[in-house]
TrEMBL record:
GO biological process: DNA-templated transcription initiation
Keywords recorded for this protein, A-Z: Sigma factor, Transcription, Transcription regulation
Recorded GO MF terms: DNA binding; sigma factor activity
Domain RNA polymerase sigma-70 region: 28-91
Listed name of the protein: RNA polymerase sigma-70 factor, ECF subfamily
InterPro entries recorded: RNA_pol_sigma-70-like, RNA_pol_sigma-70_dom, RNA_pol_sigma70_bacteroid, RNA_pol_sigma70_r2, RNA_pol_sigma70_r4_t2, RNA_pol_sigma_r2, RNA_pol_sigma_r3/r4-like, WH-like_DNA-bd_sf
Length: 199
């Protein structure tokens, strides 16, 4: 985690509260790993740790107007993340208990109208956007974000120059940003999604 002074942190929080996306990214990458390690230490689940931390940051962005009153963002994030972790563990325990009862007792749950997880909604939009990329941009994007290949490796694999690969990646990210903007989804959520589903 990159250390951030309290003075710098206050400045970043002020900027985020005013919708500054770059300030949000700075905070996201500064605290993401330490928060993830905190959750992993208590749950022993890397997947659960990533999900909880990313959901915490999504909540931060969606409620960014209230950030200026926070004295310590680090303490705030650890409390928020811990609460989300406890809620997730309660949900998991509840689901395990529910799976142990008779099928008849599950009927109210089965007939209830399912509530869509906002994360799943954002993910479906991201996947939809990726499918709309031009073929070559889509290949480059997937090789970079899913296969985690380096620029030079992608260039060799697709018989392209590194500069062409860089250009395709830049155009792909620009398209995704515009697609999210058209869907009225804030850009910082794209940062979180890319980290969550293509890490």
């Amino acid at each position: 985690m990159a250390l951030i002074s309290l003075e710098k942190e206050a400045d970043l929080l002020s900027r985020v509260s005013n919708g500054d996306e770059k300030a949000f990214e700075r905070l996201f990458y500064a605290y993401y790993d330490s928060l993830g390690a905190f959750v992993y230490q208590l749950t022993s689940s890397q997947i659960l740790a990533e999900e909880i931390v990313q959901e915490a940051f999504i909540e931060v962005w969606l409620r960014r107007e209230s950030l200026t009153g926070i004295a310590s963002f680090k303490s705030f994030m650890f409390v928020l993340t811990k609460n989300k972790m406890l809620n997730a563990l309660r949900k998991i325990a509840s689901e395990k208990l529910r799976n142990c009862v008779w099928q008849e007792s599950l009927e109210p749950y089965q007939s209830a109208e399912p509530v869509e997880d906002p994360i799943d909604h954002y993910k479906s939009i991201l996947e939809e956007a990726i499918q709309k990329l031009p073929p070559q941009q889509q290949k480059v994007f997937k090789l970079s974000k899913i296969e985690r290949l380096k620029q030079e490796e992608i260039a060799h694999l697709l018989n392209l120059s590194p500069e062409t690969v860089k250009k395709h990646m830049k155009l792909a990210l620009k398209f995704l940003r515009n697609y999210f903007a058209d869907a009225r989804i804030d850009m910082p959520l794209l940062v979180v999604l890319l980290s969550r589903f293509f890490r």
